[in-house]
């Protein structure tokens, strides 16, 4: 039977742990779905073209850009946004680390930086190398240079890069893993 | 963005039927380039046929001792694969020097090969661009073309292909497996992308009804001694001014085999065959590396904005071969 | 010589941790965590496009793809017919607005708020590429976006003039205006002195257009309730936005409510009122619905001004022992035919060095381009690149250490051109302390190689004048002992909301955790604009006054209850049976407001005659240049700043680092590309306009002298802009040291470094 294209498919996925079902136009991005249709404005829009990283969310634990993801593509997936990472009442240790290390100024890139960092540390745990890894064959170690290269998809125009890297490294130090 | 519809085929056959049967259909991979171009009004499909859920995401051994990489393998998974990293380090490096961590988690191998140029005039709907609108002219030839081609360009187009992965594949003599309703075929990667000539609107030799299903890497011991070097305008997350994928075998101080492909210099990944022929059997010295690079670039043509890339290419090739000689590959 | 290894560990001495609630002693000077930290790190801080508004509609702009011409016809039928479209606004159906003020009125600085003189959607003329010619309003964002692509416009076009270099001969002289930053100055006959000087350096420089690229694109939500307008917009000047909109829409300012709680970066780009703000308010008026318009990234590039490009000449004549005999700094910048102004490009040259003669002058070219606007250290950022590069070249010419040359020519106590006294000047200390901390004595020989890289060390000085503006505040203390400061100031990430609490705590003598601030809303007393690095100092002046007045009133109440002066406010109020006490400094309306403005202006004029007040600094860096390719990497960075008193080392150091990072962007990659044939920006995107990424920025070792300026409120000089000044030159000087090559054009891309 030939495949049936749909203009407004029903979309079922897990959003911050909650089963979610919405009808959404096929052309709507995951970012616009979150911000404009579900009032989850913690995920930001900075360029809408995959060049700044402020819309970073986790899909099945992997960091992706919500602006270049069509909402329909997350059918059946597990989506985590900054709202699912931690709350003002129960912040995640990484969110606390960002505050302690002053890893933000205006705060607009912060959600993306935090989601990206969580995905990035998982990639390190899985042994994914980076462009600055000395050897492709060996498992990469965590270092300031590795963290900075791996976080380079997240721009911060306020220039809080030092604080962001410090926050991520101190969080990773205390959690013990992340090589 | 124009309203569209979306389809998830359950099988490759279903996908191949959909692309023919549904008017205005286009395959969707990771979407990192296509979705952006749709938003810019440069790509205007009516239907997106999502091929990322098809069984195309495996990396497997081939009977010939190489690797077969499914077209829907995400870039991160390709770069993380231990067989790729150890046997084809140039490929892992090329992938990791492209885009960002987030984009690598989304982008597929097939989509990477089919990404379109980042030429400023292609991206600007108000500008003349033969690639976007054949016959409208080329705004870039006498405009801002710092990122433009120095090899194989035509008066109609100076765009370059932006992929890093494809440069490594060209150096590795990979083949692209494609399928359509009428069957499958294998395209040598060198013949997959094309030069602009009179028809810059065509990036590849892929037919409209064909789906990239895999890329195969031949068994190649030399590939373990390979590296990717990318020169760009910032330390990360930028397209190449010049990139070099290279492998080198030196026996008793003499080059027994050199393989080089260049990125950022042409409408397609550029295999440096002149250089390779020049170097074979010559002493593995810095001078010979530079002479070989100069021989390759002898045919290069620069504009005032791209002239520097000719010398930059020579120097980057020389430095990459020198490093391969002195330190070996990146594995 | 030892080369420092690339830093992989975190800084050895992070700002001392805040001991948290209950800590006694002064709040000022403590590295307190930001008060908005939880809101920002959990994504719960709502930026201007994120307020849930019932009945909201979405607007999308249609931009002209031509730079000069006229709309012949505009066809909106298809767009109007698209499902969900509420309105297509064009010059044919838009409400007529009162034209923007054409002159600056010192009594009402909101007259400076116009982004340009274009009468958006009130004219068929097109003046700049990307000018909005229509706005589509629809029930959903997707509907508005697609319908906008269906609007068809037919233009009559005129060839634009857009080539800055080609039009340099048409440049007109810029006259310095009192009160505004200097664009010229003279001490003696510099031309003659230069000719006679035994050692001469004469260099030409260019800097390109830059764009702010705050990561939050400008967004406006407009809601009309009868004749009352509420605007949600992240901006740097709530007062200007409120008054300017009131004038344009011909309603009383009190009927315009501006909400601007969180601002996702500004850097100068959100100080003025740009096209989209006006159009959103117009659309909401016509649609009779709330309208939100969040610009696309391209839309920001096309409708908000950027930093002017410059061409500069710096010529320095010196004695053989290094005394500067003549310093000549000539600069040309650009503005739009429809607005913009001259940045103070030469201002650094008036105060960095005590040259025996000085000539500083500016010219300006008018082009068919979007107006330029202030961007972080407007003028100083570009001018310092030129003068601090030339000074470095002079040091090489003289065979003198570049730090020594700078120290040798420091003014003692008076500004060389104007003769005003420095309120205090610590640039020499900054240079010396930086030299010691960086280990400058171990500077390697020029052209030293480390593996494949050439190693270079560079130094540059920084200066940025201190500004103060009017800040009206309201301070309330209640019977629980809580103090609340209310003022419509701006929090774009500078940490203002945090340091305000610290200042109130100490001035009033209450614990920090009992102080909170209300800000970012025009319903609050008028705040200073976030610009000129002046917001914190301006607030400090009024906070000091308010706290003094509050103390007085508390003491009066206390004495009634037989309590001594300085008693705990909670106890005083409780015993007196008062719920709360409120004091106000300044007034927003009426004769008192006028008087406040007069007092502000007269103080400014008096001050400018008596004092030169400025933040200063010294940057030291080590770069690596790949000997094969010219790729540039910053390996090590250290800066020492005098920003007067440091209220919060954590936020202040972050702000200074932010300035340095933006300076690294200028140095290494930022450039807005304009196709001079079409006057069109060709790289309106964060992919092709290269701001620094994480990998470009090493640990930035920032130090502050923390020495209060005696002439500034609480001794604060301001830290927002001095960080960027001189960064480009420090990098260029390091490249010169590494490669022997003097690069005089920004950005310092590898082709320019290799040559």
Low-confidence segments of chain B, given as residue ranges, are none
User: Low-confidence segments of chain A, ≥5 residues, pLDDT <50?
Assistant: none
Give the strand content of chain A: 5-15%
Determine the fraction of residues in helical runs of chain B and give it as a percent range. 25-40%
Structural class given helices, strands, pairing of chain A?
Answer: alpha+beta
Total of domains of chain A: 2
Alpha-carbon distance between the two ends of chain A: 49 Å
| Top CATH class of the largest domain in chain A | Mainly Alpha
Kindly provide the radius of gyration of chain B, computed on alpha-carbon positions and rounded to a whole number of angstroms.
19 Å
CATH superfamily of the largest domain in chain A: [2Fe-2S]-binding domain
Number of helices of chain B: 13
Number of strands of chain A: 5
Overall average pLDDT of chain B: 97
Tell me the total number of β-strands of chain B: 12
N/C terminus separation of chain B? 43 Å
The largest beta-sheet of chain B arranges its strands as 4-5-8-6-7
Under the CATH scheme, the architecture of the domain at 227-325 in chain B is 2-Layer Sandwich
Region (Disordered) (chain C): 1-30
Keywords (chain C): Molybdenum, Oxidoreductase
Protein name (chain C): Xanthine dehydrogenase family protein molybdopterin-binding subunit
GO molecular function (chain C): iron ion binding; oxidoreductase activity
Describe what you observe in this structure:
The complex is a heterotrimer of chains A (179), B (331) and C (755). Chain A has 179 residues and is an alpha+beta fold. Chain A has helices at 30-37, 82-85, 93-100, 110-125, 144-150, 161-175, and strands at residues 10-15, 18-23, 56-59, 62-65, 78-80. Chain A folds into two domains: 10-85, Ubiquitin-like (UB roll) (Roll); 93-175, [2Fe-2S]-binding domain (DNA polymerase, domain 1), CATH 1.10.150.120. Chain A has a five-stranded mixed sheet. In chain A, helix 3 (93-100) packs across helix 6. Chain A starts with 9 loop residues before the first strand and ends with a helix. The model of chain A has no long low-confidence stretch (mean pLDDT 96). Chain B has 331 residues and is α+β, with helices and mostly antiparallel strands. Among the domains of chain B are: 5-52, Uridine Diphospho-n-acetylenolpyruvylglucosamine Reductase, domain 2 (2-Layer Sandwich), CATH 3.30.43.10; 227-325, CO dehydrogenase flavoprotein, C-terminal domain (Enolase-like, domain 1). Helix content of chain B is 31%, strand content 21%. Chain B starts with a strand and ends with a helix. Chain C folds into three domains: 48-159 and 212-303, Aldehyde Oxidoreductase, domain 4, CATH 3.30.365.10; 168-211 and 306-466 and 613-754, Aldehyde Oxidoreductase, domain 4 (2-Layer Sandwich), CATH 3.30.365.10; 468-608, Aldehyde Oxidoreductase, domain 4 (2-Layer Sandwich), CATH 3.30.365.10. Chain C has 18 helices and 29 strands. Chains A and C meet through helix 1, helix 2, helix 3, helix 4 and helix 5 of A and helix 1 and helix 16 of C.
